[in-house]
Design goal:
77% of the residues lie in helices and 0% in strands. It has 335 residues and is mainly α. It starts with a helix and ends with a helix.
Length: 335
């Protein structure tokens, strides 16, 4: 066997090993968060109860919105990728789903970057990471903007907070969002900052590609921000619809304000979804207990949103990863 054949065989074994590892890790997440939950019996009972109550149409609409939610994430990412590579919508969508799969077992969903670069050319991998970072910044900007507004409404109605403190929160929120907006539309200012970092010599490939930030126009950034806003609206609507399915009746505007508050609080906790689900459940109980004392329904709604928008897309993404030549996507063809 020639050296080239040995390398090819070793590469094939590594490829299979990576895919087996991804399958095992996702299986671990599924087992722990879906099948081995201590309260899974209560959640299933809550689902069956409301299923029989004739509330299914709320859930069906939420399910139909799931692919639309990720479609707008695809449009946002594709807008930012277009500077260096032209991807079809469906190819970009495959990258989004692959990213969801990797994100489920990584802290703060950093695996999302690895999943998305599988569908760009190997020479554009770092650029794909940078585009994803810009997209995440864009989504965070939307989340913080709506989150502070929602928190003001929620705190003003349900929390015993002094009016002066509320004004302080509003001022800090406006200041923070204003600073972030300036940074977003002048994102190329980060280039000289990164180049001055003491450890930058270890990230030569990253720094070489970061100059692409200069190529983003205000129109492209605004388009990405628009898509991020639509996606946030869809995700919030899904949450509201699932709440209605589980019999939690909340006025529409206060419902969206409460959802914005939950998303804002969740953002400050950088945990992988496998652990973060527990924290999200506690935050949801804190917020929704002002509307209902049915804790099982609240937790079931939180779990339902997690299942619908992360677990199901992650399973679809797993099939994409298994059918993809991972090493070739990351490093190119073997020479």
């Amino acid at each position: 066997m020639t050296t080239k054949d040995q390398r090819r065989k070793g590469r094939k074994i590594l490829e299979i090993g990576i895919k087996i590892l991804v399958v095992m890790l996702l299986g671990f997440v599924l087992y722990n968060q879906v099948f081995a939950r201590e309260d899974i019996g209560e959640l299933r009972a809550a689902f069956l109860l409301h299923f029989r109550d004739g509330n299914l149409y709320w859930l069906m609409i939420a399910i139909l919105l799931m692919p639309l939610n990720w479609a707008f994430e695809t449009l946002k990412w594709n807008t930012l990728v277009r500077n260096f590579e032209h991807l079809s919508f469906f190819r970009a969508y495959r990258g989004i789903l692959s990213g969801i799969t990797f994100s489920l077992f990584t802290p703060n969903r950093v695996g999302e970057y690895g999943g998305r670069i599988l569908i760009v050319k190997p020479e554009n991998n770092w650029k794909g990471v940078i585009a994803t970072l810009v997209g995440s910044f864009c989504q965070m900007l939307v989340l913080l903007s709506t989150g502070f507004v929602g928190l003001l409404f929620f705190a003003g109605k349900f929390l015993d907070i002094d009016a002066l403190m509320l004004q302080g929160i509003m001022f800090l929120g406006i200041l923070l969002v204003g600073v972030l907006l300036f940074c977003f539309y002048n994102i190329d200012l980060i280039i000289p900052i990164v180049k001055r970092l003491p450890f930058v010599h270890r990230l030569k490939r990253f720094v070489k590609h970061i100059v692409m930030l200069r190529n983003y126009t205000s129109r492209e950034l605004t388009t990405a921000l628009f898509y991020g806003g639509i996606r946030y609206l869809i995700y919030s609507l899904q949450y509201y619809l699932i709440l209605r399915f589980f019999g939690i009746e909340v006025p529409l505007l206060m419902g969206f304000a409460s959802i914005a508050t939950i998303f804002l609080l969740q953002t400050s906790i950088p945990l992988p979804p496998i652990i973060g689900l527990l924290t999200r459940g506690q935050i949801a109980l804190f917020v929704w207990e002002h509307y209902t004392n049915q804790q099982s329904d609240i937790l079931a709604a939180t779990f339902g949103l997690f299942l619908l928008n992360l677990i199901i897309p992650a399973i679809l993404g797993l099939f994409i990863i298994v059918s993809t030549n991972v090493l070739q996507s990351l490093f190119g063809n073997e020479k």
